[in-house]
Amino acid sequence: MMNSPATRSEERISSATSPRLWTARSSANGSKTLNVNRDAEIRIVEVSDPRALRDLARWFASQLRPLPEYISHSEILWGRAAAPDRWHEDFAGIIEREFAATGAATRRFAVRDEEGWAGLACLNVQREDGRTVATLEDLIVDPGRRRTGIATALLRYVEAAGRDAGADWLALESGLRNEGAHAFFERHGYQTVSRVMVKKA
């Protein structure tokens, strides 16, 4: 389907709101598959409550399970995936334990609507030798809510959070076959600077 200027989704991010809550307004293009109301409000919240984190972890695992193309080297090195094209058999449990870990440097920002969780972004900030490094560890949107502005709103939010933490750069990794994600990040100014290879020891 072609978008004309009159039907293309428009986002307006308000940076005047609280640092922990941004608002994005997205006008739907009329497609019934978008599953978003006209001028729907996208609310981003940081999730830290243990019960909410457990629920969010289960949702996140259910979103990733059918997407082996999401697997990158971190998923392999940290146990989420058993191979470059296969998740670990205890994948959901591993995700739950990750989210439940205390003292973690990772912050989790999510979008939730009347139908449940709609999107998630995980930002890790590390400080060492006077430098601050911000890494976007995960970004995912429910398939029924894609192309409604949620991914862009989440990305802009974590970019601002990284800058607020003092980071000069925001880094991310993406599975080699995750071409949709590559195109999305490139549209937002990201560039490929390396290629990571793995081999079973």
UniProtKB/TrEMBL annotation:
GO terms for molecular function: acyltransferase activity, transferring groups other than amino-acyl groups. Keywords: Acyltransferase, Transferase. Gene3D superfamilies: 3.40.630.30. Residues 62-201 form the N-acetyltransferase domain. The keyword Acyltransferase applies. Residues 1-21 are annotated as: Disordered. CDD domains: NAT_SF. The keyword DNA-binding does not apply. It comes from the Bacteria. PANTHER family: AMINOALKYLPHOSPHONATE N-ACETYLTRANSFERASE-RELATED-RELATED. This is GNAT family N-acetyltransferase. The lineage of its organism: Bacteria, Pseudomonadati, Pseudomonadota, Alphaproteobacteria, Maricaulales.
